[in-house]
Each structure stands twice: as C-alpha cells, then as structure tokens.
C-alpha cells in the first residue's frame, strides 16, 4: 500500500547503495549535459523527464540531492518541489533549482519559499556544480551513518531496557522469596540469626527474640554479645570474627542468658551465604539449646572421675591384701611344710588359699583393664604388623617355639598398647585351650584385603569352639570350660573385642568343636580409604 508520503526511507533504503542524484529536466539534451558533468562523482545518477516522473523515481529510492529544472511543461519545478516537500520520505532531500540566467530575483525567492537550498544558473559551470553536489553527497552520507548509528543505539537501548526490566523482576522475586524465607525462619523452633556482608546482625527470628525476651530493634543493638556469659564472651567474639574474616563455617558452644536470667548452653552453627551472582552476602546461623546434653556430659565426666577414683581404690586397696594373702601363704608353705603336726590337708588348704587369692588378683586386674578400655583416649598410629607380632610373642617368654608368624607385614592404623594386648590374649588362649598331652601350636597369618582392610588370623590346634558360642565367648565372664582344667577370668576376649572396636576394627572366630580355632582381627590399612560395607557379616 503506497500513501502520498510513500514508504519509510529507513525501512527500504539499502545501507550499502551509493548516493543517488536525481536530475529533472524535460529536455533530453539538458539531462545528458548534467549526466556528463556529474559522472565523475561516483554517484547513481537517475534522470527524470518531468515532475511526475521525478515523483515516481522518489518512490523507488532515496537521493542525496535533486537537481530540478524550473521551467517544465504541465508541472513546473516549483510545483514539483512543493509535492516533494509534502511527502515524508522526500521532505528533507535538498533541492537545487536549475534555471536560465535570465530568470529574475522574484523567481529565485519563490524557489526558496518552496524549499530550494540553492540555485544554479545556466550555462552551468561544471566545477561549481560538482563542488556543490559533493557537499550534499557528503551530507547525505553523514546522515546515513548517523541514522545507522542511531538505529544501532536504539537497538542497544531496547535490549538494555529489557535487561533492566528483567533484573528488576528477578530482584522483586528475590526480595519476595527472602521475605518468605524469613517468615518461615520465624516459625522455626531453633534460634536463627543473619548478618549483612559487613558482619552486622540484621535479623533474629521469633524463637530467638522469645528466648532473650527482647525486641528485634533492641537485639540488633549488640544483643548477641550482651547475652553471652562473661567467661565465654571474649572467646566467642574472637571465634566469630575469625570465621567472618575467613568466611568459613563455624560451630561454637557457649553460655547465653535466657530471658529469665538463667544461662543456657547454646550450640551456634554459622555458615556464609551468597547472593545469586555468587558474591558474599553475610552469615546465617542457627542456635540450639544443648543444656541437657552438656549436663549429661558433665554428669558422665563426674561419674567417670568417680569411677577413676574407685578403680584406683580397687587396684591399690583391694589388690594389696590379696597380694599379702598370697605372700603369707607362700611363707607358710616354705616355713612349715615338712614340720611336725603339718599334714597333707594343711598344705592343700594353704595352696588353695594362695591360688584363690592369685585368681582374684588376676580377675581384678582384667576387670580394671576392661573398664579402662571404655574410658581412655585411644591414639591411633601406623603400625607394622610383623614386628609388633614378633615383639608380643617374645615378650610372652614361651618355652620351645609354639608360635609362628607368617605372611606379609602390612601397616595398619591402630594403638600399639591395645594391639599388643589383643594379640597377647589371643595367642595365650590358643596355647591354653589344647587337650591334655597335645603340644600347642599357634600360627599367625596376616592377609591384605583389596578393600583397605588388613586381616590377621590367630590359628591354633586346640579344642575348638562350637558355632553357637562364637558370639557369646566375647562377652565378659563367658567361659565354656571348667576353671580347674583351663584357668582364666573370662574377660580376655571381652577385652579383645572392646580394644579392636576402639581402634575401629572388627574381630571374629571360625571354629568347630575339636578342630582348632581360627580367631581373626581386622584393622584399616594405614593411609587407605576403607569400604565399611565390605565388612558385612563379621563380628566386633
Ligand atoms: P579366659 O581365657 O580367661 O577363660 P576368654 O575371654 O579369653 O577368657 O575366653 C572366653 C572363653 O572362650 C574361654 O573360657 C574358652 O571357653 C573360650 N575360648 C577362648 N579362646 C579359645 C580357644 N583358642 N580355643 C577354644 N576355646 C577358646
């Protein structure tokens, strides 16, 4: 559809096309002369033979300048110029009237009135004409460049506005979701706090405010450190400051005053949080009232201290009379056996008293060792199994050579004292539980598993254990044999299981009655990641 204004030049013009010059004259000869004069300018020269012709050319493309003959039949130059000016598309194209030298001043004034920018008199001077036209061509080129720049700017501006609107939308959603989460935090039973990126606490949830019995505004004015116990304040503030500086998560326990004035033990866990663009936004944290846990820990500590004192009493005060009983029995036996009036029964009774006191002493010793195992801290170090096993065997000062250590010597993670005790108990049992007349033989074999565990077998040629007792024998005082045949306290294997457990390992047995026993101990290899599931089915 074409209106009187024609299509929009910006929409139809080709940015790469050359500048156009429209020359309008009813005389073919004049057109040829003009074409000749202008051909060197590097422009597209379009000729029109009348005003109407010129108007149709103007619909086809854009021009840098129009050279318009004043005198033309039907529609003269002035009328044509008026119509050109009326059209939006051609309104701004400069028009130069071309007329004969005889035209008067009035004519020239009329030309300017309809929008001419210049006048050229015939006969034409090529140089003057070309330099004038060049000016308009340059203006045209500059105009086009400006239009293209402004088009580019408009596009960029539109994209920018779109981006700003998008960001504003995201910010609004974010603000809403923050409000939503803060409202959610208000419902949390735990105490929640949040800081800004400068470390200033800007939010405490309702539970916090209910705990301290203060308003949000009061609490924001340094409420947290004001509520701290004076003995904990310095340490807590330093810990918080350090965590904030390094932007590392932190956990700390301290006493905080509740609204009723009572100091409660609080576990405070803080974490840095970030904005959507990844920039640091501050810290957020939650606090838990751990007073009951701290109380029970304190009670346990007190109970442990009491037990410690009790153990000390047991080991010193209870064992001392036992040792003196055994000592006096020994003196009696040495001094009186063979003397007059001392018969066989006397000797047997004294021997029994001596043995019973020794048994009781061993029992107390083992029980003490067992209870200490639950309390004492266990330091773990890498231990090479081969040398440790040999050391244990040699410290047992055995007659003959009943124990053999075979296999590789991998390094496990364990506690040297505990591990020595474990193997000493297992070897001792292996040598003890043999049928009378049979020479005991114990073989210790270490295997390296694929899954990061090291398994050590302690195998004997003894009486064996029926499968239904395999678990039971690891409990305290569980003994399967008469003390008269196989002396013992029934605590050795309980110590083994607890010690191995404290080192993060496992223990078990493979055995049948009358076919010897194979006890095993598994510990993690030093420096190896352990696969806990691969241990399914074993006993600790
Ligand atoms: P103790 O050796 O002092 O009796 P333990 O706790 O070491 O106590 O062992 C518990 C019981 O397990 C033993 O009384 C015995 O019946 C059985 N037992 C332990 N080791 C072996 C073994 N190598 N062969 C056969 N039975 C064993």
Structure description:
Helix content is 48%, strand content 20%. The chain is built from 15 helices and 17 strands. The protein has helices at residues 9-12, 28-38, 51-60, 77-86, 105-113, 126-187, 206-212, 216-220, 223-227, 230-246, 291-336, 344-375, 385-395, 416-432, 492-502; strands spanning 20-24, 44-48, 65-69, 95-100, 116-122, 191-195, 201-204, 250-257, 263-274, 280-289, 381-384, 403-406, 411-414, 442-448, 453-460, 506-511, 517-524. The strands form 4 sheets. A 5-stranded parallel beta sheet has the order 2-1-3-4-5, with helices on both faces. It has a 5-stranded antiparallel beta sheet with strand order 7-6-10-9-8, sandwiched between helices. β14 (442-448) and β15 form a beta hairpin. α12 (344-375) runs parallel beside α15 (492-502) and α13 (385-395) crosses α14 (416-432). The longest helix is centred in the N-terminal third of the chain and has 62 residues, at 126-187. The protein starts with 8 loop residues before the first helix and ends in a 16-residue tail after the last strand. Mean pLDDT is 87; it is low at 1-15 and 531-540. Adenosine-5'-diphosphate binds at residues 425, 429-430, 433, 460, 462-463, 465, 473, 478-481, 488-494, 517. Residues 425, 429-430, 433, 460, 462-463, 465, 473, 478-481, 488-494, 517 line the site of adenosine-5'-diphosphate.
């Amino acid at each position: 559809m074409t209106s009187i204004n024609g299509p929009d030049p910006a929409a139809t013009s080709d940015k790469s096309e050359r500048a156009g010059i429209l020359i309008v004259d009813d005389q073919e000869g004049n057109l040829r002369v003009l074409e000749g004069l202008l051909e060197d300018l590097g422009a597209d020269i379009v000729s029109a033979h009348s005003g109407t012709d010129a108007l149709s050319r103007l619909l086809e493309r854009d021009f840098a300048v129009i050279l318009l003959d004043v005198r033309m039949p039907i529609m003269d130059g002035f009328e044509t110029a008026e119509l050109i000016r009326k059209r939006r598309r051609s309104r701004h194209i400069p028009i130069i009237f071309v007329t004969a030298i005889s035209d008067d001043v009035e004519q020239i004034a009329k030309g300017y009135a309809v929008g001419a920018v210049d006048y050229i008199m015939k006969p034409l001077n090529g140089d003057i004409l070309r330099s004038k036209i060049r000016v308009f061509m340059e203006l045209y080129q500059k105009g086009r460049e400006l239009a293209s720049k402004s088009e580019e700017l408009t596009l960029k501006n539109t994209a920018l506005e779109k981006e700003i609107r998008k960001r504003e939308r995201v910010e609004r959603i974010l603000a809403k979701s923050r409000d939503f989460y803060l409202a959610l935090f208000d419902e949390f039973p735990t105490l929640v706090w949040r800081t800004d990126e400068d470390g200033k606490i800007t939010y405490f949830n309702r539970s916090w405010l209910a705990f301290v019995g203060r308003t949000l505004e009061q609490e924001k004015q340094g409420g947290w450190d004001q509520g701290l116990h004076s003995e904990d304040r310095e340490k807590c503030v330093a810990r918080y400051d350090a965590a904030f500086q390094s932007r590392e998560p932190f956990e700390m326990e301290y006493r905080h005053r509740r609204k009723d004035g009572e100091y409660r033990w609080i576990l405070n866990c803080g974490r840095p949080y970030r904005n959507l663009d990844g920039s640091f936004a501050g810290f957020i944290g939650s606090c838990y009232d751990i007073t009951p846990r701290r109380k029970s820990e304190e009670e346990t500590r007190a109970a442990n201290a009491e037990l410690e004192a009790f153990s000390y009493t047991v080991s010193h005060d209870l064992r001392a009379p036992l040792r003196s009983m055994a000592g006096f029995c020994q003196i009696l036996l040495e001094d009186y056996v063979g003397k007059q009036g001392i018969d066989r029964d006397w000797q047997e009774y004294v021997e029994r008293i001596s043995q019973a006191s020794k048994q009781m002493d061993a029992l107390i010793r083992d029980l003490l060792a067992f209870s200490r195992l639950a309390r004492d801290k266990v330091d773990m170090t890498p231990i090479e199994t081969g040398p440790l096993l040999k050391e244990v065997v040699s410290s047992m000062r055995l007659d003959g050579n009943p124990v053999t250590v075979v296999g590789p010597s991998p390094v496990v993670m364990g506690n040297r004292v505990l591990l020595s005790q474990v193997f000493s108990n297992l070897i001792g049992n292996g040598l003890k539980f043999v049928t009378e007349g049979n020479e005991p033989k114990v073989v210790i074999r270490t295997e390296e598993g694929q899954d990061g565990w090291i398994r050590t077998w302690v195998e004997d040629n003894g009486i064996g254990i029926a499968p239904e007792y395999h678990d039971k024998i690891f409990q305290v005082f569980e003994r399967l044999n008469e003390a008269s045949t196989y002396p013992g306290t029934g605590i050795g294997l309980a110590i083994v299981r607890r010690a191995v457990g404290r080192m993060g390992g496992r223990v078990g047995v493979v055995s049948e009655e009358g076919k010897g026993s194979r006890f095993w101990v598994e510990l993690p290899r030093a420096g190896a990641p352990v696969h806990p599931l691969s241990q399914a089915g074993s006993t600790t």
